[in-house]
């Protein structure tokens, strides 16, 4: 399978990746939005996804869903003894209501027209005597919008009609409240922005509800305000951030001003923290309502993977994620395969830009340092990497081909399983259009680094066999012994999961732990400014979030050791190894 995970390469290094509340711990942008940006869009410099997994399901956008609690169409007819005489005037006023150029607002207005066009339609928010209890309840919810991470000034609250108000005033209030309710429902569901416009590496789409079905549902809900606020994400991670937002605002309000104001609550820092929490609350709106009772949670800024079962993290490990120039994308997909001793297929980019030129030079008798000084044959070049060449599904002798006269992309290059394979012992495959996956690696030393952004998009797992054990114990009831047998076998074994496991690759720079403590994680791809700018409709530049772990006075021992003895910079040019030292030419390339 071709992979984009190694689609970029350092040439010299070659020299030849509303449901039940979920107790989930707390996609990708290459560079921060420029200061002049108002509504950030996907940058042309973002890596373009290539070579999707052939089993990637086709993209299906079924459009808005029917709101929960909305009566079925056959149940909508109501038995009424008296038709509301104001409805006729309401319909007439709706017909002449000014239409907005916004597609969303047009849809809301049409939903109101359709809702009140029913023969048995009744007013929802007002009565002949003024505001109805249901109308009063939703106005109260609109006033609390800021507490839920929405913009309070996005909603225009009508003046509550008083007893004896003119019929025209009541009709205006009925329409006005209805439009604001639909706007709130859309914003609560994540409809303020389309995440896919922020970066080509984001494949997340909030699921909105049909406006008319929202009206039908809230019109019969026991508590209209509770229904409206129930449209926000129900995930525990979202509600934990909601609490952190309230705390941050309370701390800001209580902070002294003027001389002697503590640095930690200075205006700029306070504003930045509040905005960062709001940005992360918005990302929760992009996720599925149901994350899965058993799922894998990869938080890219935190550089950690977790397996969550029934709301509890049952496994946690560090991961290596994509570099800022080759970011790990953000999406959800079901894991379908666990592959032991996988083969690695060389991606198109490496074939054309690296392997091809090396083969041509080798056959021409050229030399590029010690690597080619002892051979001039294509087979020797590929043998250094344990690569085999295939054409039409059949293995061919690389020395029998004139590489100077053929298109190298017509051939397949495969690295079979071995202790030098760049994917290690096990690979976790969840077909997706980015063709990224999770896998083992021989670059074990990188897991001790506090910042682990070294890959080309895929995620390398610190303890892959333990991850395989947890997943296969859940899916098949297998124990550690069965995993050990598959590893000892040494041959490729594809294990198909009977219960596909949801994998969520997310980007949260602010999370709250089980004790209620807020943690921040480095904004490694400069994503926060883009989201903040899109939400504000103007340029908002947030400084890169600093990891709260790095800010601790007593940082983990390995991080303190790293500061005392920084790891040596990886050598990017091919060098002959010392005698007796095994050399893995793909070591610099295993950042897939």
Brief summary:
The protein has helices spanning 11-14, 86-95, 103-116, 133-143, 167-188, 211-218, 224-229, 236-254, 267-284, 348-363, 378-384, 464-476, 480-489, 527-536, 557-564; strands spanning 126-127, 130-131, 202-203, 294-299, 304-309, 312-322, 330-340, 344-345, 388-391, 394-396, 412-415, 426-429, 438-439, 453-455, 459-461, 493-506, 510-512, 518-520. With 592 residues, it is α+β, with helices and mostly antiparallel strands. The protein has an eight-stranded mixed beta barrel.
Q: What is the total number of structural domains?
A: 3
What is the tally of helical segments?
15
Portion in beta strands:
5-15%
pLDDT < 50 runs, ≥5 residues: 6-40, 259-267, 366-375, 553-591
What gross morphology would you assign?
Answer: elongated
Rg over C-alpha atoms, rounded to the nearest angstrom: 29 Å
Task: Give the strand tally.
Answer: 18
How would you write the strand order of the largest sheet?
Answer: 4-5-6-15-13-12-7-16
* Secondary-structure class: alpha+beta
Distance, first to last CA: 14 Å
**From the coordinates shown, what is the CATH architecture of the largest domain?**
Beta Barrel
Question: How would a textbook summarize the main sheet?
Answer: 8 strands, mixed, barrel
What percent of the residues sit in helical stretches (DSSP H or I)?
25-40%
Estimate the mean pLDDT confidence: 81
- What is the CATH homology-level superfamily of the largest domain? L,D-transpeptidase catalytic domain-like
CATH topology description of the largest domain: L,D-transpeptidase catalytic domain-like
Give the C-level CATH assignment of the largest domain: Mainly Beta
